Amino acid sequence: MILAAEKRSFLQKEKVKGDVYIMASKRGSLSINSDNIFPIIKKWLYSDHDIFFRELISNGCDAITKLKKLEVMGEYTFPENHKNQIQVIVNPEEKTLKFIDTGLGMTADEVEEYITQIAFSGATQFLEKYKDKTNEDQIIGHFGLGFYSAFMVADVVEIDTLSYREGAQAVHWSCDGGTEYELEDSNRTEVGTEITLHLNEESLEFANEYRAREVIEKYCSFMPVEIYLSKANAPQEYETIDEADLREDDVVVEHIHEDAKTEEKENENGEKEVVEVSPAKDQVKINKRPVSLSDTQPLWMKHPNECTEEEYKEFYRKVFMDYKEPLFWIHLNMDYPFNLKGILYFPKINTEYESIEGTIKLYNNQVFIADNIKEVIPEFLMLLKGVIDCPDLPLNVSRSALQNDGFVKKISEYISKKVADKLSGMCKTDRETYEKYWDDISPFIKFGCLKDTKFSDRMMDYILYKNLDGKYLTLEDYLKENETEEEAKEEAETVIEENKEETAEEIKKDAEEGKEPEKTTVYYVTDEVQQSQYINMFKEEGQDALILKHNIDSAFISHVEQKKETVKFMRIDADINESVKADGEENLEEQTKELGEIFKKALGKENLTVKAEKLKNESVSSMMTVTEESRRMQEMMKMYNMYGMDSSMFGGQETLVLNLNNKLVQYVLANKEGDLTKLVCEQLYDLAVITHRQLTPEEMTKFVARSNEIMMEMTK
User: Fold this and answer.
1) Residues 163 and 246 occupy one common structural domain
2) What is the pLDDT of residues 238-283, one digit of tens each?
3) Claim to verify: residue 308 and residue 279 sit in the same structural domain
């Protein structure tokens, strides 16, 4: 869409004094198929009204960068004492905010093109496309409408600009938030642009120096140009420095000389002598040097070889205000096929992975865009803290468009791959460090495997599991260490060349017939204290198990079972392992039935499932088991708050296992109607429950009282 000026020529000029042209004052109208675009800008163009700081400062940075390139190309020469910088000046008395850059400036023609045309070209289409979008589908970056973000906070916006072009005339542009603007000559004498915002009453907070500093540090801390903030008409501040540190641009107020200080002291020989306590000083009092709010060379822009460990830690503390040291970090540095740099930090993660929240700051050419844009950054990386700078990222689109952008997906995949490469590389080359960090980083890695298939494929062989002895093993290592001699022999036979084809045929045949592949059971522990009885029994028989006690492990083991079809996980208390049973294949159906009737009557639990076993460890009286399937379903129901449903409909219930080799169980069988039988049954049941879960307050009260009663009986 073209902006129409009034019928007369937009650039009416009068020739005076040779080749110098003076532009006549001119008023025009913005031709837009909308009564007024500014209310729309103010209401929903940006989610945060303070974003205008980023847009205006970013425009100034672009102007300075372009002028620097022209200087390098020999098309422009910087004047003496030139400084590439942006000044932000707040003036609470006049309710104004100024943005001044030393960039290439604009001519009247360029003001017409860049300010009054480009911003509104396609405005109708733009408004039509996004008018019904919600906050979740906001436009996230630069739109060509960035300059007009100023009207979110200003009633009037003025521009004074002077182009770098030889013989250029300074231009003044102003607009009061309507569709009309005014363009005339300006008295600006320095190349660059000055934008003045006359703030509306709702936005006076931005004229406050501290509020302005807060916003600039939020969006512009790492822009490639120095940014200085000052308050108009503020009293001059001073500082004192050593004369040797004086710079050419310092404004000297006073020279200060301090004579050396001496004292009379007694030496080793008892003689008094004059000793110099402090040397003579030559200092100067100067106007306080301005301090840039922007770090123009942030750490992520450097090559990893140029960065020290302390620099990484200091950057982490500065950016994330976290004084707990990160575990380690990954420095991303890529130039092809797209430009991407950044640093990802691995913080120490607590046990509740659902509540973990990291911060990944997204930048574009050192300009802050937003935190945690999941379309660019893989979801599981949101657990981390870090920065990512990608100049090639398309930002003039909605978040939904980003989600479907093939280029953006490649960026996300690359980041995921680099993280996987770093972790797998550490596992292979620095296993000791990897194991040291494992307990802290394992929730993050497991979450990544659940959320990202490619990440899972890359990391599955580098997942560590801690066994009962506290040793860290991969799943493959664990299976090899725990296979029996017979299993090892079978495995060795299967790799013989002559049997390979036969084995493959068998697998193919089983698959065609819909048969499940033979699975190896991997036992695991979720609570070392509560399941200690089972653990001790396992250890007595030389059996091993894995410790998987993090909340994420329940979902993760299901994921592993999908990836590794020959492996199934079973909690150590899900069933009685054959190795802990006493030798012999005696049928125990009769004893099981008999004990079931006794315990159901004593406990008043008609639906109780009882099973009799003969265990090697005679000291173990009773245990509680829950099938793996049933327990997992219970956990899933708990996760999704499905408390109203009966978990028993999905699988087996709790099973009370009684050891026939234990004297207490033998007592129950021998004394079905004995005076103490009910008491013993109740105690055996609670002892079994304790190994499975915590007793309720009511159950614990009864258990304690019953224990006292039993001990009293022993004293009789």
Assistant:
1) no
2) 999 888 888 888 889 889 888 888 888 888 887 888 888 888 888 8
3) no
